[in-house]
Amino acid sequence: MRVAFCGAGAVGASLSADMINAGVDVTVIDPWAPHVDAIRESGLTVNMPTGTEHTPFHPLHLYDVPTLRGTFDIVFTGVKSYDTRWVAELMKPLMGPDSVFVGTQNGMTIDEVSEIVGPERTVGCVVGIAANMPSPGLINREVTREGTWLAVGSLEGPVTDRVRQVHELLSHGAQVEITEDIRSAKWMKLLANIPEMLPSGILGAPLVEAAGNPVIRLAMDQASIEAYRLAKAIGVTFMPSLGIAADEMPDSEQYALDLLDAVLARFSKPTTRVAVLQDWDKGRRAELDAFCGYVVKKGKEIGMPTPVNEAILHLALQIESGELAPSWDNQELLVAAGQAGKQ
């Protein structure tokens, strides 16, 4: 089986290393040249809670892709949600009729992938992992492999041989489940991400610190509840996720709040900074379209107002434009966003 992983950041590189160390033939490709060069020179260093691991391999630059021949059976990507389309187009010529494309990403990128490679070659992945990349060639994973949780499933639903192979590959680095409703499964993760990603990023604070503030937690909860109501309106199936069992699921908006609590308990340390804030720390564009931006978009599609998520998204866009900076100075603005639509 021939495997490619295009987009080897904190998630992609560490999962690739897990596969490589298990003897899998993985071609790793990444757009960040210093990261590729650092791994070529010194290997990849992954700091796990149980110790430091070192994996030597030879990743490729993007400009090396035209030198590749043949097809890959499974193509993974770990790029930011807004880069999904061009990566799918880049790798499409290297896929065969029975190949699949797997996004180990935040957001609902299954739709973009499906438009490019086809629904029959699209496999979604729900990612429950805490990792960061402070410098090229260095990954910090804050949760053990036993505590890392993923779910995979084909866009069309059936559990195919390829889905089973994806499950096997990812199981080298995490606890992995197979679902026959990947869209709903990814919505569960989105409900967990909505209150954490943009709000704590806007404050420039670790997630635990932000969520520990009662007035901020209230604003987070309002965004969660709004997203839950939207999910219910468009027919999403609510299912167990992030370690919450079926018999622990309330049949109410409380489940959205419980999902954030699961993230806080299982995937967050006092110093954990969400992906949005990590991007802003590095001067990069964040995945606003994958979180509140997606909720606002879907709400407009069905004519359902989402004022809280829209107000939070507006603050995040002001940070991206340079009008604001991530800081606790934005607390009052965030609290007001949580009350949007109630005036």
From TrEMBL:
* Positions of the Ketopantoate reductase N-terminal domain: 4-143
Domain (Ketopantoate reductase C-terminal): give its ranges: 181-319
Among the entry's GO cellular component annotations, what is one? cytoplasm
- Per UniProt, which keywords does this protein have? Oxidoreductase
Could you name the domain of life of the organism this protein comes from?
Answer: Bacteria
SUPFAM superfamilies, A to Z: 6-phosphogluconate dehydrogenase C-terminal domain-like, NAD(P)-binding Rossmann-fold domains
EC assignment: 1.1.1.169
Which protein, by its recorded name, is this? Answer: 2-dehydropantoate 2-reductase
